[in-house]
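Handoff note, outgoing to incoming analyst
You'll be picking up this chain. Sequence as last confirmed:
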Amino acid sequence: MGFRDRCHRDADAAVECIACGETVSRSDAREYDKHGDRWDRDDKSFEYLCKPCYGEYCHFDRAGLEDRLVAAGAGTVSRGEFLRRYHDLADGERTRTERR
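Most recent structure output, in case you need it:
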């Protein structure tokens, strides 16, 4: 089965947005690859962003993003605690950048 066939077959599958948690159809979402290589599809599964979150969040610089997610406790602490930690880390990064 070719790529185009797989893409059309999965368009109506339900996926969860990693930013807001909403469940949307695959056709109403955008792929997110934490390694930044969404074109290499061999043996890979993707996470998804709904279109509103994709438009709002995905265009920021990703340098150091995975390290910040781990440091903030992604997947290991409550959503509220993770968001607080991530905000503190991002705010600290912004402050360091502004001093340069």
